[in-house]
């Protein structure tokens, strides 16, 4: 097996907000919002929703950080380009959604594609806009 190093670094985007800052009341509701965003996008496709917390708790040696109430990944892919077979190593994309005692945390890796990154940032920001639109 050949091992190579990617020259790109992928920063993690994090949006942390309290329950009063959004109209969404659960990780499931936020995941549903992201699924709707993905399905409405012309080049994105929804793949799965993964309950990371349940999986980890079911492992004999699984460990979950204190205060995590729920944690899921919304798995999807932007199908805009496939420049090489090696690009598959960084795909598909995932948005993490966690609930803590303080509120919610949304995380995702920066995409090497500006279009994909802009969409994910817009979707995450929309969680806060939803609250503002209702208020």
What does this entry show, briefly?
This protein has 135 residues and is an alpha+beta fold. 31% of the residues lie in helices and 30% in strands.
Protein architecture, described:
Strands 1-5-4-3-2 form a five-stranded antiparallel sheet. It starts with 11 loop residues before the first strand and ends with a helix. 31% of the residues lie in helices and 30% in strands. Strand 4 and strand 5 form a beta hairpin. The protein has one domain: TATA-Binding Protein (2-Layer Sandwich). With 135 residues, the protein is α+β, with helices and mostly antiparallel strands.
Total domains, how many? 1
Rounded mean pLDDT is 91
Low-confidence stretches: none
As a percent range, the share of strand residues is 25-35%
- Tally the beta strands: 5
- Largest pleated sheet: 5 strands, antiparallel
Query: How helical, in percent, are the residues?
Result: 25-40%
Q: Return the structural class.
A: alpha+beta
Rg from C-alpha positions?
A: 16 Å
- Annotated CATH topology: TATA-Binding Protein
Spatially, the strands of the biggest sheet line up as 1-5-4-3-2
């Amino acid at each position: 097996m050949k091992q190579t190093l990617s020259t790109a670094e992928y920063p993690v985007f994090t949006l942390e907000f309290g329950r009063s800052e959004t109209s969404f009341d659960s990780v499931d509701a936020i995941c549903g919002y992201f699924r709707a965003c993905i399905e409405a996008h012309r080049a994105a496709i929804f793949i799965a929703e993964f309950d990371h917390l349940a999986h980890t708790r079911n492992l004999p040696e699984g460990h979950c950080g204190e205060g995590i109430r729920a944690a899921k990944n919304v798995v999807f892919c932007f199908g805009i380009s496939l420049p090489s077979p090696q690009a598959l190593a960084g795909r598909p994309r995932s948005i993490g959604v966690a609930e803590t005692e303080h509120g919610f945390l949304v995380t995702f890796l920066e995409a090497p594609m500006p279009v994909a990154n802009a969409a994910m940032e817009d979707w995450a920001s929309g969680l806060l806009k939803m609250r503002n639109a209702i208020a």
